[in-house]
Amino acid sequence: MSARGAETLPSSGGNLEFLDIGGEIAALSPLQLFWRRFRQDRVSLVSLGFIGFLVLLAIFAPLVVDILGLPSPYTPNSNLTDSFGSPLGPSGAHPFGVDQLGEDVMSRVIYGTRVSLEVGILGTAIATVIGVVVGVLAGFYRGWVDTVLSRLIDVVLSIPILLLGLGIGAACAVRGCVNGTIQPGLGVIIFLITLVNWTYIARIVRGLVLSLREREFVDASRALGASNTRIMFREILPNLVAPVIVYATLLVPINILIEASLSFLGVGVRPPTASWGQMIASATPIFNTAWWYMTFPGIALLLTVLAFNLLGDGLRDALNPRTAR
């Protein structure tokens, strides 16, 4: 069927849209409707492209460093400091300059992308899964189940994540805790993020499930003999995909900032592993004489967080059936 002369017809309720194709009416699928709205948001498209670029940069970081002719981020070079031991600034061989150990800042910024995305995406994924399961159970069963899970959420929300991270860092910095099993690093950061941030998703999902469980399709499924498990995860859960995606996307930059904060405080990623927060912390004492060491990791952190926030806003608008485009 030819799409020539396709014409959009306004929807009556705002939830459906149709195309007049060759004299026939064709309804747009939810995915087509989402993509039609999303592609009109140029800012979100640019943000998505930038995030895709960061993902490729993180995956192929060694290859990118080799192509750019940069030294390894873990190779100190005392010849790249002046007679007073101060790092040299940006140059043709080192576009972002070097740090006080003579390590190339640009290669460390590139490798730092791996840590930020790993913490942001992996931590958010684990927290989202836990939050969705807890929220669905609390909203569907209500009663004592809802009371217990809601109070658990309140208790977890009262935990100050930065102070907890500082406590773990102080207690486990030298020999570790639990026979050396727990030590400050990437694993502890992901654990802290998962421990605290699942609560936000759980509260949102619980509120949505409280409304969805009273809908007609749930009554119909129950009348057909569907079990509670099937109703929760086969009937209600698909209706939560859109809001969960939006809130998870907005949670990623928060987790990236948490990692940067903990690394800045010295309880996150430890040297020589490249991390934007750790690089900013190391650059603080020499900022007056080596501005580049703090500036470039800071710009990378700013642009990454901004891109995820803008993408989350775009997804929220595109997935909202009441949004008129």
What does this entry look like structurally?
The protein has 325 residues and is mainly alpha-helical. It has two domains: 7-38, no CATH class; 43-319, MetI-like (MetI-like fold). 62% of the residues lie in helices and 3% in strands. The protein has twelve helices and three strands, in the order βββαααααααααααα. The protein has helices at 30-38, 42-59, 61-67, 105-141, 143-157, 161-172, 186-212, 216-223, 228-236, 241-264, 276-283, 291-319, and strands spanning 7-9, 18-21, 24-27. Strands 1-2-3 form a three-stranded antiparallel β-sheet, with no helix packed on it. The radius of gyration is 25 Å and the shape is elongated. The two termini are 26 Å apart. The model is unreliable at 1-16 (pLDDT under 50).
Q: Which architecture of the largest domain per CATH? A: Orthogonal Bundle
CATH topology of the largest domain: MetI-like fold
N- and C-termini, Cα separation: 26 Å
Class per helix and strand makeup = mainly alpha
Pattern of helices and strands: EEEHHHHHHHHHHHH
Gross geometry: elongated
* Number of distinct beta strands: 3
Our Rg estimate from Cα atoms comes to: 25 Å
Strand order of the largest sheet: 1-2-3
CATH class wording of the largest domain: Mainly Alpha
Number of H/I helices:
12
Q: Tell me the β content.
A: under 5%
